[in-house]
Design a protein that fits this description.
Elements (H helix, E strand, L loop, with lengths): L2 E11 L6 E12 L4 E5 L6 H9 L6 E6 L14 E4 L11 H11 L6 H10 L15 H15 L3 E5 L7 H16 L3 E5 L3 H7 L2 E6 L2 E7 H5 L13 H15 L2
Parallel strand pairs: 3-7, 3-8, 5-6, 6-7
Antiparallel strand pairs: 1-2, 1-4, 8-9
Helix pairs in contact: 2-4, 4-5
Length: 254
Amino acid sequence: MIVETEELTVVFRAGWSRRTLTALDRVNLSVREGDFFALLGPNGAGKSTALHCMLGLLRPNSGEARVFGRRLRLGCAELRDVAYLPEEPHYHDYLTVEEAVVYYARLSGLDARPQRIREVLERLDLAKVRSVRVAVCSKGMKQKVGIAHCLLQQPRLLLLDEPMRGLDPVATKDFRDALVELNRGGVTIVMNSHLLSEVELVANRAAILADGRLVAVDEVASLVGRDDAARDGSRRTLEDAFLALVREGRRAHA
């Protein structure tokens, strides 16, 4: 397995009070090599917390998250095979798009030869804005800068935190195509997202969290196929399955 969590539990203290908030409650997950794995759940379900544990940025109260069979630590060699794209990536605003791609590639020890950079920029439709400063780029363009780095790196594992939120339909399609290309090239992807229609197009497996608890994990096709159709007779969607499973999970723990 590329990623495994075992009884992963994270509890936060609520401000200065003695009250606590359980962000993750004994969550067990496994991500196979080559998966496009989606972490789904309402706001506050624990999705970003799970990613931070996988990256070694957050130490759980109990249980553990393993990547490539071990717990990641800042500076460990395994991080060379992991790429992470947050919901709001931040780059040096004074750099141009091309300068940002080159700078972060060299910082990571990647191939930053002009021909290679040109190929990646053209593939992501960034060549025409290569001289535009990052400060004036849209969110979609900034996300593409992050994906450009991933294309140069070709990591074994890519972790994405709400990467399509706020993107327009064209940017969403371009971003989706880039992710599919990476996954088909052998990159394992774990993605948090509220855009269930997009998840249904790209992910092969999904886990659903509610209030920090795992309520379902299965192949996307199986989650959608648990009922033959939605109540109105239309095809059952991932959104239908998601809503039903979240409600069921909350009732079970009420």
